[in-house]
Amino acid sequence: MQNYGTKNLPLKNNAMECVICKNGTTRKGKVTVTLERGGSVTVIKEVPAQVCQNCGEYYLDAEMTEEVLKRAEHAVSKGVEFEVINMDKVA
Ligand SMILES: [Zn+2]
């Protein structure tokens, strides 16, 4: 499981060279994003992303980044300690 961080740059849906391992290329896939904010943990499953075929690092595009942050903020505002969201079911 990986934590969402600033290293996940907003990107387009095209395959690209991985900036983390510089040795792999990305492919479209689904990832699980875990966000921790003010005591709330939000796990978002089935998030469309570009995934490095070499090291497994993932990259979300700008739209999806905004979406997962919005959902995490919502969980925090509700005071939920732990929430699991499946993007396949809410999209
Ligand atoms: Zn990589």
What this model shows, in words?
- The protein has 91 residues and is an alpha/beta fold.
- The chain has a single domain (2-90), classed as Roll (Ubiquitin-like (UB roll)).
- The protein contains 2 helices and 5 strands; from the N terminus they run ββββαβα.
- Strands 1, 2, 3, 4 and 5 form a 5-stranded mixed beta sheet that branches.
- The chain is elongated.
User: What is Rg?
Assistant: 13 Å
**Overall geometry:** elongated
Q: How many runs of DSSP E, i.e. beta strands?
A: 5
List segments where confidence is low: pLDDT < 50 over at least 5 consecutive residues.
1-6
Percent of residues in helices = 10-25%
Biggest sheet statistics: 5 strands, mixed
Overall structural class, as computed from helix and strand content, comes to alpha/beta
Q: How far apart are the first and last residues' alpha carbons, in Å?
A: 22 Å
The CATH class is Alpha Beta
Q: What integer is the average pLDDT? A: 86
**Beta fraction:** 35-45%
**What number of domains?**
1
In CATH, the architecture is Roll
Could you spell the SSE succession in H and E letters? EEEEHEH
If helices are DSSP runs of H or I spanning 4 or more residues, what is the number of helices? 2
Instruction: Output the CATH topology.
Output: Ubiquitin-like (UB roll)
Give the ligands present. Answer: zinc ion
Give a short summary of the structure.
The chain contains 2 helices and 5 strands; from the N terminus they run E-E-E-E-H-E-H.
